[in-house]
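Thread: adenosine-5'-diphosphate complex, take 2
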Amino acid sequence: MGTKVLKFGGSSLASAQQFRKVAEIIKSQPERRYVVASAPGKRDSGDTKVTDMLYNCFRLASKKEPIDEAFRLVEERYNSIIRELGLDFSLEEEYAKIRMAISHHAGEDYVASRGEYLNSMILAKYLDFTFVDAENGVFFKEDGTFDDKKTYAALGALLEKEAYAVVPGFYGSMPNGTIKTFSRGGSDITGAIVARAVNAEIYENWTDVSGMLMADPRIVKNPRVIEEITYRELRELAYMGATVMHEEAVFPVKEARIPINIRNTNAPEDAGTMIVPSSLSAGPKSVITGVAGRKGFSSITIEKSKMNTEVGFCRKVLNVLERLGVSFEHMPSGIDTVSIIVSSAAISDKKEDIKARIFRDTYADSVTIDDGLALIAVVGRGMVRAKGTAGKIFSALGQEEINIRMIDQGSGEKNIILGVEEADYERTLQVIYNAFVPEDN
Ligand code: ADP
Ligand code: ASP
Ligand code: MG
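Output below.
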């Protein structure tokens, strides 16, 4: 029997009603054996994720304010799920331990991780699966990076003993035993790690949309579902803002060539999106696979005449950024100018320092920093063959009088990155989407 690993996101496990859907999905196939659970997410748009409630408890405790009321809200979320599922089960002892730890200044990651810990306990009880704590199977190294060797050995051995298990997402242990979380949305990574540890035939990532969509559904109306996407395309779209899956979740499964299937808990009959190595792909149906973007970038533009003939110019500029601990996203250049695109948050308190050091190290004619840039990635392995993709984008944006502030095209031609004013961001996504997807579809 093959093994399937399933990860359910916060909205899939936000209420008793959602737990029932999840159980039905899992129980419908005996090979659905290992389940990774997130903390309860939002039940409706006005709701708060349990993870955010826990971060709030941590903040209160660090300001030495009482956490009773804030933590009671967390308990209520879980108790209502337990009650409505009719489970003969209590988390009171766990609550007491966690409340005590928070008041005694437990670390932020520990506090946040309890969201998935408690939810996984309920899910394991409801499914009659074994609860396997990620604390004993997912490990980080001293420097905070994921310890793949230790994890796959430990987690593989733990899960080998269990025919059916629930593992909490989002966290693992540091070498000294303290809890550390991945970045937000990190249960997707745990799902991929579990899939790799048990060498699953597939990693099913269950969420609240019927797959990866060609554009963010909160901006573009009814975008098409991407039936098949390669790991690489997914990572580019995820990195640039298609938040349906954490961009780091592809690494563990990619190496083992385990496909990912993004599915909808609220519409399990939909096939969703298959994420595959490019070699297994049937080939793209359309020129572009998807478009995604993010706001919050700045450009550092440096001008100097005859810059193009000066050996080592860019190295000097990048050295300045390196010394200030700033990483860069893109670096489009002309004959006498170069622009470096960075996250605005990374330079907000360093702007004067950056300018001064670049002047000093490069004798530039001018250095200017402009905020308010949004980056948009148009991604598609079909772009390699189709001619005129860039032209199509530019003419569509030109017609709408949207000013392009930056262009960067990867040499692999699998993506085109555009920079536009933040105010034009939503409109740009829509215009690009419309340029490639016929309206009557
Ligand atoms: P989960 O709680 O299941 O992990 P997330 O909220 O993290 O789910 O991710 C799913 C959400 O991602 C969707 O509800 C959607 O609003 C958003 N999203 C943004 N871009 C895309 C995209 N290109 N395709 C699908 N969903 C997207
Ligand atoms: N619960 C965590 C978060 O809200 C992890 C996750 O949902 O994947 O970020
Ligand atoms: Mg998520």
